[in-house]
Amino acid sequence: MKILVLNCGSSSIKYKLFDMESNTVIAQGGIEKIGLKGSFLKFPLPNGDKVVLEGEILEHQSGIEYILGVLTSEKYGCIKSLKEIDAVGHRVVHV
Is residue 21 situated within a structural domain? Predict the structure, then answer.
C-alpha cells in the first residue's frame, strides 16, 4: 500500500510518498513560492543528491499536478502509475 501525504501552506506544498509494505518513504520534496516569481520543486534523489526544477507554478492545483507528474516521470519517478497510490492524506492545521 502506498500513501501520499500532502501539507499545503499558503505558498508551498510539501509531500511524502510512503510504502507501507516496506515501511519506507519512497519520495519526498516540496514546492516553494507558489504564485510568485521563481517557483520551484525541490526533492532528494535516493543517492542524496538534490534536484531543483524551476517553473511557473501559479496555484496549488497545478503544483499538485506537477508533483504527480514527477512521481510518475521516467527520469525521477518512483511509481509507474498514479493507480499505485492507494490513499492520499492532507495535514490540516486549524487556528
Answer: yes
pLDDT digits (tens, 9 = 90+) for 18-67: 999 999 999 999 999 999 999 999 999 989 999 999 999 999 999 999 99
Residue 41 lies in a domain: yes
- State the residue range of the domain holding 37: 2-90
User: 39: buried, middle or exposed (CB in 10 Å: 19+, 13-18, 0-12)?
Assistant: buried
Rounded Cα distance, 88 and 16, in Å: 10
Please indicate, yes or no, if residue 52 is contained in any of the structural domains: yes
AA letter at 79: I
